[in-house]
Design goal:
single chain, mainly alpha, two-stranded antiparallel sheet, 80% helix
């Protein structure tokens, strides 16, 4: 049910159609959008935390096992653990903020927008996170005296990852924009 889908009511005095918002259908639409935003954000956070902890552990283990102790790989391991910790703290703060919203239609919409805003910021932060990871990997390969063409291939791979993450980021921005348009239309209707 889109916001523009309205109930048609006939004015019995002059047989002209009047339009009214189906509040229950609108609230159900808002709840659906809120649930979708929460699910995507929750999944993204858990995935990012587990991937960063797993990556940091793997790199740290491989460095210890190989015994050559590449400093850039140790730094990358610290970076990924720090990223996981930051996301974990952000997740806890987001969940704590969820309790400030009532369960009215307007507060459900505001909650969905707050969650979508958080997801957009998280997505942008993870796009920027690709840069230090690419740098650590390139420097680690360089200090291990790997062939230059491998470093170039890795940098090309990270350029592709950045492009793909930009596509994903635009999806989150569009979802947030949809919610903001719905909020604007709802507030305009309430004002009239």
């Amino acid at each position: 049910m889109e916001f523009e889908e309205l109930q048609k009511i006939w004015d019995s005095q002059n047989n002209e159609p009047l339009y009214a918002i189906n509040a229950k259908a609108l609230h159900n639409r808002i709840l659906s959008k809120k649930k979708q935003a929460w699910h995507i954000t929750n999944f993204s956070e858990l995935l990012l935390i587990s991937v960063n902890i797993g990556t940091g552990s793997f790199i740290l283990g491989m460095n210890f096992y190989n015994g050559h102790g590449n400093i850039f790989m140790y730094l990358m391991s610290v970076w990924t653990f720090s990223t996981a910790f930051y996301i974990l703290i952000s997740r806890v703060r987001r969940i704590e903020r969820e309790h400030k919203f009532d369960r009215s239609m307007l507060d459900d919409l505001n909650h969905a927008i707050a969650t979508a805003t958080y997801q957009v910021r998280l997505s942008q932060l993870m796009r920027w996170n690709n840069l230090p990871i690419a740098i650590f990997i390139a420097l680690g390969m360089w200090s291990s005296e790997k062939p230059f063409w491998i470093i170039v291939l890795i940098l090309i791979f990270f350029a592709f990852v950045n492009y793909a993450s930009g596509w994903e980021h635009r999806i989150y921005k569009n979802r947030k924009r949809e919610l903001e348009v719905l909020q604007k239309k709802t507030s305009e209707r309430r004002a009239t």
